[in-house]
Design a protein that fits this description.
The structure holds two protein chains of two kinds. By secondary structure, chain A is an alpha+beta fold. Chain A has a domain of about 100 residues: Alpha-Beta Plaits (2-Layer Sandwich). Chain A has five helices and five strands. The termini of chain A are far apart. Chain B is mainly α. Chain B is built from 13 helices and four strands. Chain B is globular and about 60 Å long. The termini of chain B are far apart. The chains are: A alpha+beta, B mainly alpha.
Chain lengths: ~180, ~350
Amino acid sequence: MAIDFQALSLSGRKRDVSNKDMTFMERLYLPAIAKGMGITLRHFFKPKVTIQYPEQKREFAPVFRGRHILMRDENGAERCTACGLCALSCPAEAITMTSAERKPGEEKLYREEKYASVYEINMLRCIFCGLCEEACPKEAIFLTEDMAPADYKREGFIYGKDKLVMPLEDKNLAYTK
Amino acid sequence: MELTFFIEKFAIILVVFGITMLIALYSTFAERKVAGYMQDRIGPNRAGYGGILQPLSDGVKMFTKEDFIPNTPNKFLFIVGPWLFIVTALMSSAVIPWGDTINFFGTNVILQATDINVAILFVFGVVSIGVYGIMIGGWASNNKYSLMGAVRASSQMISYEVAMGLSIIAVLMMTGTLSLRAITLQQHGFWDGANHWLSWNIFKQPLAFLIFLICAFAETNRTPFDLPECESELVGGYHTEYSSMKLGFFLFAEYINMFISSAIISIVFFGGFNYPGMDWVANNIGGNISTLLGVGVLFAKVFFFIFFYMWVRWTVPRFRYDQLMKLGWKILIPLAIVNIAITGAVILLRM
């Protein structure tokens, strides 16, 4: 039995291409232009969806993950103990830190005996996945709703403790779960 | 007497020049706004309230840019090109009747720079000189894309001028005059009592209007016939090598052409400064009020057609070059000749 290759359609979505001549009205082209102009005129009067950015800001989703913050506890001491779990969990390898031992008299500054003397996040590497936030056993690092702002130099994107640690006066622990 | 005549005409020319420039300036802004609105955007709205100062900032930008002249043996022609284009664009506004007579401290002033009896011929002549601006500019740029754009522009304008002229002949057969003022006055009011028909030429010559409109789009190099400057094929067409205010002149002249051709369409086909009930206004309220209202009506018509130009630009895609030539030579010209024959037959039958 010969196979009719012309009628064969494996996907079942085969369609015959029609190449019929246009009718006179279609060749006249003007009705089509009038129809198209009707469409553009309808769009002319449609409400615009533009958000005027600096004045108007779009609401972020509640799960939005922006730039990081290193939290302090209710007494204003840094929570981070430089355990390195955030750096370990980071898929982009953006986090690096150096640990140090707390000296006597620094109890106000650091909550536990060990703390991060250097804590750096490379914002160009960071993919804002939030795994550091999930890995942290001390609830020290959180991702806020702020954007990481633009910079002219690559060095400007390596955020140290000066940019990451929560300012002392900002005592509302809004990001604590 | 001579001096007052000179002052009167000089004032009218200055005012017309100023208004033409202002409208061209704000057409660039309107174009961007219309484009934005038709694409569900807002368009420029940062400079001034609602972006109203945008044309000024564009102008400042144009003036402060580097005035680059390419390595060409025709520096003089390179400079003359945009100059010629904008001068010819502005010249055709001289014969346009902006309004009827106005009584100004006892003297009757015609709101028109000059009422010559060959106004339509003058407009056609000046518009065809405008091609020289594009041609010289594109050729002197020493750039193959510019040359291609210039060649396209000139062949397109020459082709469509034929159909345009033939379409207007049918109208001239009815009016019997080439003066734009006389043509406007013939379309007095809105209802032509003698012929029991609407008095505007659009109702008497719809086919001529359609042909004229399409040709006007081609003559002003607007989409769907903007092949001389199509960005996707020829970089910028004839003004690829231009920068600073020379480019500004080219772009500006395009908008002036658009304004002037809108005015010609309004006057020849849509009754110019005539509006329904103008006799009643002239008799009951005052002649000057009626004239000023007529000027307003003419500008409303002109603005509608400028909007129409933009509306079409952001709707219809560009024609292919062979389609353009086919439309011009094989469709519009025969259609215009048929229209002339029909008009002649109707005039003979009514005699």
